[in-house]
Structures are given as C-alpha cells and as structure tokens.
UniProtKB/TrEMBL annotation:
This is Nicotinate-nucleotide--dimethylbenzimidazole phosphoribosyltransferase. PANTHER family: NICOTINATE-NUCLEOTIDE--DIMETHYLBENZIMIDAZOLE PHOSPHORIBOSYLTRANSFERASE. It comes from Kineosporia corallincola. SUPFAM superfamilies: Nicotinate mononucleotide:5,6-dimethylbenzimidazole phosphoribosyltransferase (CobT). InterPro entries: Nict_dMeBzImd_PRibTrfase (IPR003200), Nict_dMeBzImd_PRibTrfase_bact (IPR017846), Nict_dMeBzImd_PRibTrfase_N (IPR023195), Nict_dMeBzImd_PRibTrfase_sf (IPR036087).
Length: 376
C-alpha cells in the first residue's frame, strides 16, 4: 500500500540537472582562485545549481526551520537521562523564543515553525496566545508558530513492538511533504529540518543501523549525556529492537516504510516526508544532526535522488551521524561537536550556504578581471 499523494511526490523527485551542474563546475574553474581553493563551498554551489537547474542558483534565503517534536515509548527503557515531559517543555521554550534554535534563527532572519508530530504531554496550557496556526502557509520570521500534526501521542517502545503502524508512518510522511510544500509556496528558498524528542537518539541509532547495515555499537551514542553503563544498556536496547524487527518484518525486510514504522519515531516520519517534499519542490534542505540524518536515510531509500536536494549542516558528536552522512554521500559544513538537535547545527551553517552561492554568482572570472591563469 502506497498512498497516491506519496506516489505523486516520489514521482516528482528528479535528480540534479546535468547541464546546470556542468555550467557551475565550468564557472567554478574560471573564477579568480585556484580550482578547489574554496573547498566544500564550491561543491555546495554546484549542488545548488543542479537542484535549481540554473547557474548560478538563486540566493537560498529566507530559510524556514521546521522543528518536528514527538515522544518515544522506548524512553521507558531508561535510554535517556531526561524525563519525557522535557519534550513538551522545550516546545513551549521554542514558542517563547528562548531556545538555541530561536537565537540562531533570529541571527539569520529565519522563520521557526514547531510541528507537534506526537508529543505525549498536553501542550495547550503552554502555547502562547496566537502561536498556534492551522498550517505552515502563514509562518513568518517575526515569531515562532506551532502546527498540530499529531498522528498519535508518542510512539510505542521499539524494543517491544513496532513504533507505529504502517498507515501512521505514511500519514507522518504526508504531513512532512505538505509542510515542505506550504513553506516553498510561501517563498522560503531554503528549508531546515530540526527535531525535539527525548529518547529519539535511540530510534535514530536503530534506523541508521538498519539502513546502513552497521552494528548498533558503532552507531549508538550518548545522546543528551549518559554514562558508560547506561550506554551499554542503550546499545542492547537498539540490538533488541533490530532483532524484533527482523523477526516480525521478514516478509518485507527491505521496505523503507516498514522499517520506519517498526523502529523509527513520529518525528522521523515527518522529517523524512519533509525531505521528500523539499526535493519534489527543488528547494534545498539543510539537515541538522543524527535525527535528521536517520530520517534522510528513510527518504533516500524511498527515492535516492532526494540526496541532490540535501546539504549536511554539520556533523553531530553522535557517532551514528557520520555513518548516516557517509551512506548518503554528504559532507558536513561545520563540525563543532554539537549534539543539541532542534535544527541548531543546520541553522548555524546557513550563512555558509548563502556564501557558497554568492561566491559563484559574484566573483570575477580570470577573463573579466584580467588575471593570468596558471601556466601548467
Ligand atoms: O542532533 C543531534 O545529533 C542530537 C544528538 C544528541 C541529542 N540530541 C537531542 O537530544 C534529545 C535526544 O537525546 P536522548 O539522549 O534523550 O536520546 C532530542 O531532543 C535531540 O534533539 C540531538
Ligand atoms: C534541555 C534540552 C534541550 C534540547 N533541545 C533539543 N533536545 C534537547 C534535549 C534537552 C534535554
């Protein structure tokens, strides 16, 4: 079963435009610098040209950050040192403008939209007057907004049973697709995928292990900060979840939606849809940390060409993130040992993404500047 709207989105996703890629590479070679001297920025400008189908590509601004929030049944296994209600309390903090992502979004003139994808604690008493909006088409950089896209209030414990049904996973994907479409239609030229969900590094590790075939010990990290003993236990919980899925899903072992429904989370489903939606609308999407990385693996398994729309904002300290990025073939723009989530690392990278485009658009060529090219 694949929903028609999901099928239509997958159908709309096309790989990068080869002529625009060639034109951008050719122009990079003619700019007044040794080829490759601007390192990863050059590749970013080429990727964005391929996505836009023009060289140079448009300025990727303004940006909108969608922070997908949800809770996780696997929290009951003692995989996080933080109580579950922190997910809802941080949603309130995002809406009040006091979280790290708000500070960084203000610095870059980016809008923040918080998506309730399945937070367990009731949010109503915590939502400021006027912050709740029906959809993402009225989101503006002036103040953070909340949209309600609850598929269910919290996932089930992935070490015991599937996180959600396949139908719920599809609904999550569709929500993310719709939000990306609304932000693109509202004039946002760059999307950022962020997350909030106590215990979500456990489901992220499980997804990364499943999609990359890596052992749980290599992709499971300390999340918000657990000690050695709790970390050993967390690796064991991920192993149990993977073994349960393999035993239960043996008729469709490779189906990305089944894997997502079995060992993922509600925010992973919506972020994966958000990536698909951005790629279908050919709007660049900057991924944040390990949660967005795990979700992008789901999207890429559904449509490999989505990777051409993705940029890795940073590399998280969580070990599974590097494994996910390597599998996706993405180079992180910054590595500041961040492990916060919320979209913070991706928003930090936005000025670099704009710089990459500005360089390709505005730098002089050897011809126009009258600079002699290298002799051999
Ligand atoms: O972005 C990351 O790579 C990242 C790494 C570690 C923790 N986090 C954030 O911390 C929360 C999950 O951590 P934990 O330990 O409760 O699984 C969740 O809200 C994430 O946004 C995020
Ligand atoms: C305080 C806090 C803030 C966060 N932001 C994203 N994940 C988080 C987890 C915690 C615990």
């Amino acid at each position: 079963m694949t929903d028609d709207r999901l099928a239509a989105t997958l159908d709309a996703i096309r790989p990068a435009d080869q002529a625009a890629l060639d034109a951008a590479r050719d122009r990079q070679a003619r700019l007044t610098k040794p080829l490759g001297a601007l390192g990863v920025l050059e590749e970013v400008s080429v990727r964005l040209s391929g996505l836009a189908g023009t060289c140079p590509p448009p300025d990727p601004s303004p940006a909108a950050v969608a922070v997908f929030a949800a809770d996780h049944g696997v929290h009951a296994q003692g995989v996080s040192p933080w109580p579950q209600e922190v997910t809802a309390q941080m949603v309130a903090n995002f809406l009040a403008g006091g979280a790290a992502v708000n500070v960084l979004a203000r610095q870059t003139g980016s809008a923040v939209v918080v998506v309730d994808a399945g937070v367990v604690t009731p949010l109503d008493a915590m939502v400021p007057e006027g912050a709740r909006v029906p959809d993402a088409s009225t989101v503006e950089p002036d103040r953070p907004r909340l949209i309600d896209r609850v598929v269910r209030r919290g996932s089930d414990d992935i070490s015991v049973r599937p996180a959600m049904t396949r139908e719920q996973a599809v609904r999550g994907l569709l929500n993310g697709i719709e939000i990306a479409g609304q932000l693109a239609a509202s004039g946002y030229r760059c999307l950022v995928a962020g997350d909030m969900g106590i215990a979500n590094t456990t489901a992220s590790a499980a997804l990364i292990a499943a999609f990359t075939g890596t052992d749980p010990a290599e992709v499971t990290g300390r999340g918000t900060g657990i000690d050695d003993e709790a970390h050993r236990h967390k690796v064991g919980v991920v192993r149990v979840a993977l073994a349960r899925r393999t035993a239960e899903n043996d008729t469709h072992p490779q189906d990305p939606i089944d894997i997502l429904a079995s060992i993922g989370g509600l925010e992973h489903a919506q972020i994966a849809g958000f990536v698909l939606g951005a790629a279908a609308h050919r709007v660049p999407i900057v991924l944040d940390g390990v949660i967005a990385g795990a979700s992008a693996l789901v999207a890429a398994a559904l449509s490999p060409a989505v990777v051409d729309a993705c940029l890795a904002g940073h590399r998280s300290a969580e070990p599974g993130h590097a494994v996910a990025l390597n599998h996706l073939g993405l180079t992180p723009l910054v590595d500041l040992e961040l492990r916060l989530g919320e979209g913070s690392g991706a928003v930090l990278a936005l000025p670099l993404v704009r710089s990459a485009v500005a360089v390709l658009s505005e730098m002089a060529t050897f011809d126009t500047a009258g600079v002699t090219e290298k002799s051999s």
